[in-house]
What does this fold into?
Amino acid sequence: MAGIKDVAAEAGVSVATVSRVLNSHPSVSQEARVRVLAAVEALGYRPNAVARSLRTAQTRTLGLVISDVLNPYFTELARFVEEEARALGYSVIIGNADERPDLQDHHIQTLIDRRIDGLLVSPADGGSPLMRDVARSGTPMVFVDRWMPGLDVPVVRADGTGAVKDLVAHLHGLGHRRLAIIAGPAATTTGNERVEAFRAAMRELGLALPDAYIGQGDFQAASGRRATERFLDLPEPPEVVFAADNLMALGALDALRARGVRVPDAVGLAAFDDIPWFVHTDPPITAIAQPAADLARAAVRALADLIEGRTPQSVTLPARLVVRRSCGEAAPNQRSTW
Amino acid sequence: MAGIKDVAAEAGVSVATVSRVLNSHPSVSQEARVRVLAAVEALGYRPNAVARSLRTAQTRTLGLVISDVLNPYFTELARFVEEEARALGYSVIIGNADERPDLQDHHIQTLIDRRIDGLLVSPADGGSPLMRDVARSGTPMVFVDRWMPGLDVPVVRADGTGAVKDLVAHLHGLGHRRLAIIAGPAATTTGNERVEAFRAAMRELGLALPDAYIGQGDFQAASGRRATERFLDLPEPPEVVFAADNLMALGALDALRARGVRVPDAVGLAAFDDIPWFVHTDPPITAIAQPAADLARAAVRALADLIEGRTPQSVTLPARLVVRRSCGEAAPNQRSTW
DNA sequence: TTCCGTCGTGGAATCGATTCCAATCGCCGT
DNA sequence: ACGGCGATTGGAATCGATTCCACGACGGAA
It folds into this structure.
C-alpha cells in the first residue's frame, strides 16, 4: 500500500509538502498542490489513520458502550448516534455489554486502549470502578439513558415520570387497581426511576404497591418471563403487568401465552420503550416511547462539545405514553408512533 | 498517561526489556520481569494500541459491514460475530450501511483507512466497485449472508432453498394457490435466490407466478407496505404474501392492518428470517429461520483463517421452516425457536 | 586457562504520518 | 544596490510502541 513517501517521490516534492496539501495548510503553491493531488490520484493513496492518530493524538472516533444490542431501543439509539457522529466527522465503535459488568469493563478498557476521543456510555449494572476512574481521569465522557450518580459527567436521558403517571392514570381509568411492575436491576438508574415513578403515581391515586407486585428483572426477556410467572402464582395476581423495558415485556408475553392467560381480558400488559412490533403484537401493546433519535443527537453533540473544548449540556427529554389495546378497551387517542 | 518509557524508568530497565515482558518474550530474567510488572502495576500502565498497531501493522480488529442494523437478523448476527471475534482475540467495528451503497462504501473506506485486519461484509445493493477493489487488493475478506459473485472470497451463508420449498408445500397443503412474494433488491444475492427458490418450488407444484405477484422491495419496512398495497389493489389479490425479510413482513402487516384485511382469513403472510416477535404478532407469523449464531461463528473463523494464513472455508447452512398461524389453520408441528 | 555458545540486556532503527524550524527565493521599498 | 519580508519548501524531530543487532557476562567443554 502506497505511503506518503511514495506520493512525495511521485510528485517530486517532500513529504512535508504532501502532508500540507492533505491537511489543506495554506502555504503551498498552486503548482505543488496540483502535482501532489495528481500523485495521490495516480497511486490511489489513502493516509494511514493509525499513523496519523499516533502523531496527532486523536482518533476522530467515539466509543459507544450500550447495555444490550439485542434490545431494539439501544439499536435505534446506536444507529442515530452513528449518524450524528458521522455528520460531525467522527466514527463510532460500538461495544455491547449484554448487561454484563465484566463485558462492559472489557469494552471500556479496549476503547481506552485504542485512544478513542470520547466515550458514550449507558452503564449496565450501575457502572463500575473502572468507569468511575475513566470519568475522573478526564477522558471525555457522556452518559446516555442511564447514568452513574456522583460524577461530573453530562447526562442525556429521557424522563419517564410524566409518562408513567399518565400510564397509571390510564390504567386506573380503565378500572384496574392491582398493578404490578417488572423492575430493571436496582443498580441502574433507569431501573430505579421507573419503579419510583410508578410507585409515586400509584400513591397519588391511593393505590397500594405491595412488594409481591414488584418483580426483579434484569432488562432481559428471560427475567420478564420468570417475574410474570411469579405474579401469576400469587393468590391474588395483578390485573396489569408493567414491564420496565421491551425485552422483559416480550418475556412477560411469553409467560402469559404459555399459561393460556388472555391479554388484556385476564391480565393487561404495558411496557417501557416503544418499538415497531408493539403495533402488531396480539394485542398491540401500550407503551412509553422514548425519543431515541433526539437522545442520540444530543448525546453526540454533548460529547463533541466536551472533546472540542466547549461546554457540554446535560439534556432531559420527556417520554410519552402511547396507548394501544393491551390493557383493556381501546382508548380514543390510540395512535402508533411509526 | 504513562508510556513505556515511564515504565522503563520506574523499573530501572530499558524500554526493550519492558516490551519483552509485555509480549512475554522468553529471554527476560525473572528478576527483570518482576520489576517491570511491578512498575506497570504502580503506574497503571496500558500499552497504546495505536502505536503498537503502527509498528506491528496489525490492529487485531475486524470490520463488519452490515446492510441494516435495525433489522433484528443483522443485529443478532453482529452480536455473535463480536462474541466469536472476542474469543479469538479480535475486536469488531460495525458499519451500518442502511441498505445504501454510498454509506456502505464510506464505511468500507473508513475501515480500510484504519487498517483493520479483515473485513466481514454483507453487501447491500450487490456490492460496489470499491468492494471489488478491496477484495482484489488482498485485504482479507469474507462475505456473510449475501455475497458478490465472481470474486475469490469465501462466503458464509444460509441456503433457504429447502425451507422455501417446504413453505410452498405447506401453503399448497393449506389449499392456497395464488402466492405472491415481496422480493429483495434484485442486485443482492439473497434478493434473487429467495425469488428463484420460490419460483422453482411453485413450478414443481404446477403453480403459476405471474409478474404481478412479484413485488419489488428493498428489504426495508416501507417497501413491504407499498408492495402489499399493490397486491391488494390487484383484481385478483394473492391468497398469501411471502416477504423476503422480516422488515418487509412488518410493512406488509402494517398495510394489511390499515386496509382492515384479516390475516390469515383473507390473506396469509409468511416471512424470511425468524425473530422473537413473530411468536407474539397477531397472528403469529410463519417464517424461515436462519441459524444466525452458527453463521456468525463460521464467518469469523473463516476470516481469522484468512488473516492468519490458514485456508478458509466457505460454509452453507440450511435454513428451516417454522410454521405458525399466519397462513391458515395451525399445523401440528407448530413450535417456536425461542 | 582459553574458547565458544547462551542468556539477558540496551541502543537504535522503524512504522507513517504531522509539524517545528531554518533555508531559499523573489520582490519591494529606500 | 541592499536589507528585509512574505511565501514556499524541505530536513529532521516526534508520537509510542516493537524488534534487530551487538555486547558483556557466565558456564561448560577441551
Notes: Residues 331-338 of chain A have pLDDT under 50 and may be disordered. Residues 3-5, 15-16, 18-20, 22-23, 25, 47-56 of chain A lie near DNA strand C (CB under 10 Å from a C1').
